[in-house]
């Protein structure tokens, strides 16, 4: 965005310079033409007094040309001041946008760092939970083995008890 604004400003500056140069060249051409006419009139004045009014007219045109030149110079200065003010305004806006972008980038970097820390904490917590699950799975396997062992022992005791009852009945008979 800054480069395009800079390019646009440079292009406008070149256009203004070209317009001022063209106007200056036109003014110089007009001034040269007017001076040539004035010289011709001065020669004619020597020949005839009737040409005095023409000289006055040409002097008036020259004065108007000078006034137009002065007006154009004033207009050029005014436009240059406006351009400089616009340039200052655009530079201030650019600085403001850069500062806002920097602030947003800092906030984004802070958020990313927070998310990364949270992810690291979650990975650690997950690892702890996995270790706990593995420990509980071992305990369960041990308890199942112990339960099976107790169940087998209970079945043997029950079988022994039945055997003892059978033997005692057979003795009683």
From TrEMBL:
Keywords: Coiled coil. This is Translation initiation factor IF-2-like. It comes from Gymnodraco acuticeps (Antarctic dragonfish). Residues 5-51 form a coiled coil. Residues 150-173 have a biased composition (Basic and acidic residues). Residues 140-173 are annotated as: Disordered. The keyword Coiled coil applies.
């Amino acid at each position: 965005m800054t480069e395009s604004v800079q390019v646009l400003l440079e292009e406008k500056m070149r256009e203004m310079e070209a317009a001022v140069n063209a106007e200056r060249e036109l003014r110089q051409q007009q001034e040269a033409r007017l001076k040539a006419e004035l010289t011709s009139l001065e020669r004619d004045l020597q020949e005839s007094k009737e040409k005095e009014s023409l000289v006055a007219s040409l002097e008036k045109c020259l004065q108007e040309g000078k006034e137009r030149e002065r007006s154009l110079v004033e207009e050029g200065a005014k436009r240059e001041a406006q351009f400089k003010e616009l340039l200052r305004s655009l530079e201030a806006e650019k600085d403001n946008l850069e500062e806002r972008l920097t602030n947003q980038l800092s906030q984004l970097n802070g958020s990313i760092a927070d998310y990364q820390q949270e992810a690291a904490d979650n990975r650690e917590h997950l690892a702890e939970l996995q270790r706990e699950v593995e420990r509980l799975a071992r305990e369960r396997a041990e308890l199942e083995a112990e339960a099976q062992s107790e169940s087998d022992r209970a079945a043997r005791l029950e079988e022994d008890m039945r055997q003892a009852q059978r033997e005692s009945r057979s003795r009683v008979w």
